[in-house]
Amino acid sequence: MKITRTVKYNLIRLFRLKSGPHEVASGVTIGFIPSWLPTFGFGPVLSIGMARLVKANTVSALVGGVMGTFIWPLLFFLNYQVGSFLLDRNTKVNELDEVGYIDAIEHAYTGIVSSHSSGFIFLTGATCNIVISSILIYIIVYVMFKTNRVRILNKIR
C-alpha cells in the first residue's frame, strides 16, 4: 500500500511540473540511464547531476532515477541477455533469480578488458539497452505530456 501511495505521489509531482514536454521527457530519460548500471545506490543522485548538465528538468530526472531503482534486477538481467545475444556468447546468468548486484558490479567494472568476459557482455547489453530505452522513454513521456497531461493528472487524483 505504501509503494502505491509513493508512486502516485511521484506521478502527481511529475504531471504538475510547469516545464514543457521536452524538458520533462528529457529529465525522465536522463534520469533512467543510471538504472542500467551498478551505481552503488547513487543512481538518483547521478540522475540529478546528469539532468543539470544537459539542462533537463531535475524533478523529472529524479522520478526517472527512482523508477529504475525498483526494477534493477530486471534491467541487469536484460543487460546480460542482450549482450550475450549481440556478441553470440553464453552468459552465466540465464534466469532473473541469478542476477546479483555484487556480481554485476564485479562483472561491469573488472571484466572490461577482455571481450570474452561477463563484464564485456554486461556493458555491451547495457549500452544497447540505454540507447533503445532512452528513445522509447523520451517518445512515450513527450507524447503523454503533450497530449494527455491534464487528463492523466485528473485520473491520478
UniProtKB/TrEMBL annotation:
InterPro entries to which the protein is assigned, alphabetical: DUF2062 (IPR018639)
Domain DUF2062: 5-151
Keyword 4Fe-4S on entry: no
Ranges that cross the membrane: 24-46, 58-78, 120-145
Signal peptide (UniProt feature, chain positions): none
A Pfam cross-reference name: DUF2062
Keyword terms: Membrane, Transmembrane, Transmembrane helix
Keyword Transmembrane found: yes
PANTHER family with a match to the protein in the record: SLL0298 PROTEIN
Name recorded for this polypeptide: DUF2062 domain-containing protein
The species this protein was found in: Solibacillus faecavium
